Amino acid sequence: MEIVNFTPYSALAGGALIGLSAALLMLASGRIAGIAGIAGGLFRPAPGELGWRVAFLVGLILGPAAVGLLGGPVPVPTFQTDTLGMIVAGVLVGFGTRLGAGCTSGHGVCGLARLSPRSLTATLVFMAVAIATVYLVRHVLGA
Predict the structure, then answer these.
(1) Confidence at 46, pLDDT banded by 50, 70, 90
(2) Whether the Cβ atoms of residue 126 and residue 111 lie closer than 8 Å to each other
(3) Which of 62, 70, 96, 116 has its CA 20 to 30 A from that of 126?
């Protein structure tokens, strides 16, 4: 199997920025940078919490746009499924996020950094399911 698009420096820089933003959010507000929790908190925000949640999510969207405006490469996502497949995948991810009481960013980035046993377990489950899914889709179903 050939490795394509191997970009260790940009991946390292991106990971460092994610870690820095998670650390700054924790230091500034005591909040965990779990995207599912931040987005979920928009539906019934506590007093004074709407602004930072919206700012965080807008930053996730505007970050790549800023890179593009500054001349950097912005990859265009491609999907190998139809709309129904995307809806099913989204529902499954949402279900898993609720079942695991958090998402990969909350558990994998912030929880592991805090040495949370619950986050370690959740991250191991996320990874095992991801590996099994890729194997199933690529090698069993032949997609």
Answers:
(1) confident
(2) no
(3) 62
Query: Within 10 A of 63 (CB to CB), how many other CB atoms are there?
Result: 13
Give the separation between CA 54 and CA 61, rounded to whole angstroms.
Answer: 11
The predicted-structure confidence for 7-32, as pLDDT tens digits, reads as follows 788 889 888 988 898 899 889 888 88
CA neighbor of 118 nearest in space, from 94, 90, 99, 93: 99
State how far the Cα of 23 lies from the Cα of 31, in Å rounded to an integer. Answer: 9
d(CA 76, CA 11): 17
- The amino acid that residue 11 corresponds to is A
- Give 74's contacts (C-beta < 8 A, 6+ positions apart): 64, 65, 67, 68
The whole-angstrom separation of Cα 112 and Cα 8 is: 22
Classify residue 51 by burial, with Cβ atoms within 10 Å: 0-12, 13-18, 19+. exposed
Rounded to whole angstroms, how far apart are CA atoms 65 and 71? 10
Would you say 132 and 112 are in contact if contact means Cβ atoms under 8 Å apart? Answer: no
